[in-house]
Amino acid sequence: MTPNPNALSAALANLSSKISLPDFTVQLRTLGLPVSNSWTKTLANLQAIIDSPNAQPKDLASLATLVTWVGTYLKNVSKAIAVFEAGQCPMSQFLTLADGFIKGLTNAGVSSNHPAGDYPALSSKDQCGKIVEQFYFRHIEKLSSQVLITTSTVSEYMVREKINVTKADSAAVGKLSGYSEIFGVRKAAYEHVDVIRICHGVTGSDQVSVDLILDVSRPGAAVLNQDEISRRLKKYDALISAALKSALPSFQSSPSLNFFSAMDKIYNSKDGNVCELGFVTAIGGSVKKEKMKRNTADLRIETWHAGGRNAIATAKIPDTIDIYRLSVSWKIVMSADQPILSIPGSYKSLSTGDVRHALILGCTEKASFDFAYERLLAYSI
Q1: Where a domain ends, among 247, 281, 310?
Q2: How confident is the model at residue 34 (pLDDT cuts 50, 70, 90)?
Q3: Is the pLDDT of residue 169 over 80?
Q4: Is the residue at 167 inside a domain?
Q5: CA distance 275 to 292
Q6: pLDDT at 180 (0 to 100)
Q7: What domain range includes position 303?
Q8: Are residues 187 and 102 in the same domain?
Q9: Are 40 and 16 in contact (CB under 8 A)?
Q10: How many CB atoms are located within 10 Å of the residue 250 CB?
Q11: Confidence at residue 249, expressed as pLDDT on a 0 to 100 scale
Q12: Is 56 exposed, middle or buried (0-12, 13-18, 19+ CB in 10 A)?
């Protein structure tokens, strides 16, 4: 089937805020599509293929493959994870329950009429400003024991930017005289792509769980901070609770899975490479944060860290460490991805014993994301 030119254009039009150009360029080269050193030129080259009356079928097929890759990328890159147990349901009734859950999301205000059209098309800058805090269905995939519901919503953030001051600017605005650059703060509307995954049997026989897989990217290169992630989780928590109550009468709201205990288990295993650690010496009371320069290096065997652990363990009064934050990475066979699982506790977590979300970063593929997610769950339940 010949790809729809309008659908191709829509899917590629507004990617620069969501995908890094280097990641996109790697995929273009893999598919034999033209590359450039800027988003503007890159998208113009792709649009030229779409618009050409003599476009080669293989190029159009490559563009269709590229759009599929974009959809996968947006579902798996830079995510926060929270896992909720929803109650018991026989396998034979699971998909019926999932349909009721989707209907419940609709009743709770999730719309199907996204202004950009079919997924993975993203809203333009003008469209984003008109749909702040509205929730949209983007894609639904039904498997035998999982239903993945891709949604999107727009949030507003304050963005700090450097502005170069020209002589003309100084002449026009007297207050700028003598300055070569200033910093400005503006409000930016930004679209998040999230996944609600309802699963059967992952956390126990006939147990239904709901995974919130939330986009933690934001305008600029940084990811959302802890407060921003918590606010996003609360908004979705309310949606999920409302949908589950309508789909599963026995549902009782409960906190998400606690990942705090997973940190010690991961650290004391030989799994992956621990690339970041926040901890306190139990007796000495020293608070430390350590981070490897390369995510693929393992802090557990780094000379300074390993020596310190051995020294306090063999001291006259032996000491131990209490971990409150941990990141671990892996190299995935047959994949360029190097997923990083982060359990982002704080010093306060040592007294509460409570970390209710984790981060999975560095994934462009479903397989690498699922690998990190499965490791998280294996150490948490």
Answers
A1: 247
A2: very high
A3: no
A4: yes
A5: 5
A6: 74
A7: 262-378
A8: yes
A9: no
A10: 10
A11: 80
A12: exposed
Cβ atoms of 86 and 98 closer than 8 Å: no
Share of the chain above pLDDT 90, in %: 81
Task: Determine the residue type at 123.
Answer: S
Task: Look at residue 256 and tell me if it is in a domain.
Answer: no
Which are the contacts of 64, defined by CB distance < 8 A and separation ≥ 6?
Answer: 3, 8
Mean pLDDT of 286-304: 95
* 53 and 39 in a common domain: yes
Indicate whether 253 belongs to any domain. no
Per-residue pLDDT tens over the stretch 133-161: 999 999 999 999 999 999 999 999 998 88
Domain count, the chain: 3
**234-249 per-position pLDDT tens digit:** 999 989 999 998 888 8
Residue 116 near residue 142, CB atoms below 8 Å? no
pLDDT at position 2 is 63
**355 in helix, strand or coil?**
coil
Non-local CB neighbours of 333 within 8 Å, separated by 6+ positions:
none
From residue 144, alpha-carbon distances to 26, 90, 94, 200, 240 in Å are: 33, 12, 8, 9, 21
Q: Is the pLDDT of residue 301 over 90?
A: yes
Q: Are residues 83 and 155 both part of a single domain?
A: yes
Do 211 and 324 fall into the same domain? no
Contact 273, 298 (CB under 8 A): yes
Q: How far apart (Å, rounded) are the C-alpha atoms in residues 320 and 309?
A: 8
| Same-domain check for residues 46 and 156 | no
pTM for this prediction: 0.93
Q: Check residue 1 and give its pLDDT.
A: 55
Query: Does residue 344 form part of some domain?
Result: yes
Q: How many angstroms separate the first and last alpha carbons of the chain?
A: 45
Domain boundary among 53, 76, 99: 76
Residue 218 is classified by DSSP as: -
Instruction: State whether 68 and 98 are in the same domain.
Output: no
C-alpha closest to that of 358 among 236, 221, 212, 217: 212
Instruction: Establish how many alpha carbons lie within 13 A of residue 178's alpha carbon, considering only the half-sphere containing its beta carbon.
Output: 2
Residue 64: band (very low, low, confident or very high) from pLDDT cuts 50, 70, 90: very high
